[in-house]
User: What shape does this take?
Amino acid sequence: MKFLTDFADQAVVLPLAFIVCLSLAAAGWRRGALAWAVAVPGTLLAVMAGKLMVVACGHMLPLHGLKSPSGHTASAAVVYGGLLAMLLPEPARGARRWFAVLLLAAVFAVLFGGTRLALHVHTRSDVLAGACLGVAGALALARLAGPRPAGLRVAIPAAAAVAAVVMLHGAHLHAEMQIDRMARLVWPLSLCCRPG
Assistant: This one.
């Protein structure tokens, strides 16, 4: 499980996201690169905001057992699911396209969320929150990117992504410790969340 979950560590995902963005632009899909530059960091920032909100106002949130939305789950859904949705041959327009994006992102969310549960580092509510954020990010990515341009050289971003993952797998950023430190700084905001 540890081997698999390491593919979604921030030490892998952050450089991978940057490399994919550059490679999409190099392949000639500027709108896709811009969508990636907005949706992926936006999703990761939403996860961090969620983690901070749980520390400050967790007692007021509706999900029982929510301790920290799973960043691994969200990252896997938006980065791996989103990238595959962008690079695979376009399904028909409309509902079939959105279903394909939703399915790919959900598969990665379930796969990586399962590793977080098996390793006992997150609760079901944490994984569910991370999955919702990651799938929403992948859907936003697909919406912003629009249809893949005809003749796009998908080998460029695909090869760049594979090379980055192979080189970075096993690295750890230990982002949770940094987020915990930030959460302690915003802890006084929790007073705003207490009932009057």
The chain has one domain: 2-191.
